[in-house]
Amino acid sequence: MAYAELESLICTGARQGEQFTYALIEERVPPSPAKSPDEALAELTKRY
Questions:
Q1: How far is CA 22 from CA 8, 18, 37, 48, in A?
Q2: In angstroms, rounded to a whole number, what is the distance separating the alpha carbons of residues 6 and 3?
Q3: Residue 13 pLDDT more than 90?
């Protein structure tokens, strides 16, 4: 499970009692729109 998390296939969910839960990343995280390298650099600069 740890390897799948490191590969961004799954993410840890809320605990149910003593049990860990997991969810697929693609079901929990909405896809982001593709950006050109210039747009990505501009956003990184703005956020930094």
A1: 12, 13, 32, 31
A2: 5
A3: no
